[in-house]
Amino acid sequence: GMSTTFGDPSTLQEVEAAFQDNTKALYAETLGNPNSEVTDIDALAEIAHKHGVPLIIDNTFGTPYLIRPIAHGADIVVESATKFIGGHGTTIGGIIVDGGSFDWQAQAEKYPQLTSPNPSYHGISFVQAAGKAAFITRIRAILLRDTGATLSPVSCFIFLQGLETLSLRVERHLQNALQVIAYLKTVPQVKKVNHPALSSDPAQQELYRKYFPNGAGSIFTFEIDPEGDADGGAKKAQDFIDRLQLFSLLANVADAKSLVIHPASTTHAELSEQEQRDQGIYPNTIRLSIGLENIDDILADLSQAFV
């Protein structure tokens, strides 16, 4: 079986302490879900490589248009193509990019699936056959064969079409998001907006400027004022969501249309209350994924939902 040891990527000492003798990889996101905290990829890469494991980065929220994690030391990058790449929430798929930078043979005892002879391929070793591309070669030769997780031609076509407009859409997502953030800061019913561009943490400010000089974070959260609500603002949050008309109540993100959800009762409902708080999620937290609509329509919908 597999087990996971969690650590706060903003506290590098905690990440370092989480390593065990049998740790096989360090996994992180460029931007956290749901608050879009920025991860120090360079620092995590240094820690991972010191311990002889690859750094795997989920770049779904960061997008390949805004940041290239491999250039910052990541060995493998994964993305949900359903999100920004597809762009319309119509197709399920994902991407694995192997940077070919990790020396699997140097850690042969940790990765026997890659370094030992494979009986289903006449005893070849993927490291010997493909070198530093051993990981992605095994994904294609073994996992794809055994699980059948092959995209349909139509899905591939949709994702390829999405890539053609990725830059244009991401720029519009961010343009709209920054105007929404500016608006939310003026609303009396909003207690706090969680976005890296607004972070009061100097370290987060520095990381945001370093990794996202062109901006990032069209998916973020805000906290509605819980005053007078016995359940910590959960009812106020849910009532606000119910009043929205343009925004769609969906767990998806990075769609052409604007989306909203209540993380504590949906996407992060399996966590305990304390675990949610540790992730910056509270009963009054609302996640927004800002879409491509006219900004006047987006702001008008948000405005009428605040009463």
User: What is the straight-line distance between the termini?
Assistant: 50 Å
CATH class designation of the largest domain: Alpha Beta
- Supply Rg: 21 Å
CATH topology group of the largest domain: Aspartate Aminotransferase, domain 1
Q: Can you list the strand order of the major beta sheet?
A: 5-6-9-8-7
| Oligomeric organization of the protein chains | single chain
Helix run count: 12
In N-to-C order, the SSE pattern is: HEHEHEEHHHHHEHEHEEHEH
* CATH-derived architecture of the largest domain: Alpha-Beta Complex
Secondary-structure map:
Layout: H1 12-18, E1 26-29, H2 41-50, E2 55-58, H3 63-66, E3 76-80, E4 94-98, H4 112-115, H5 126-130, H6 134-147, H7 153-164, H8 166-184, E5 190-194, H9 202-211, E6 219-224, H10 234-243, E7 248-249, E8 259-261, H11 273-278, E9 285-289, H12 295-305
How would you describe this structure to a colleague?
By secondary structure, the protein is of the alpha/beta class. It folds into two domains: 136 residues, Type I PLP-dependent aspartate aminotransferase-like (Major domain) (Aspartate Aminotransferase, domain 2, 3-Layer(aba) Sandwich); 141 residues, Aspartate Aminotransferase, domain 1, CATH 3.90.1150. Helices cover 36% and strands 13% of the residues. It is built from twelve helices and nine strands. The strands form two sheets. A five-stranded mixed β-sheet has the order 5-6-9-8-7. A four-stranded mixed β-sheet has the order 1-2-3-4. β2, α3 and β3 form a beta-alpha-beta unit. It is globular. The mean pLDDT is 96.
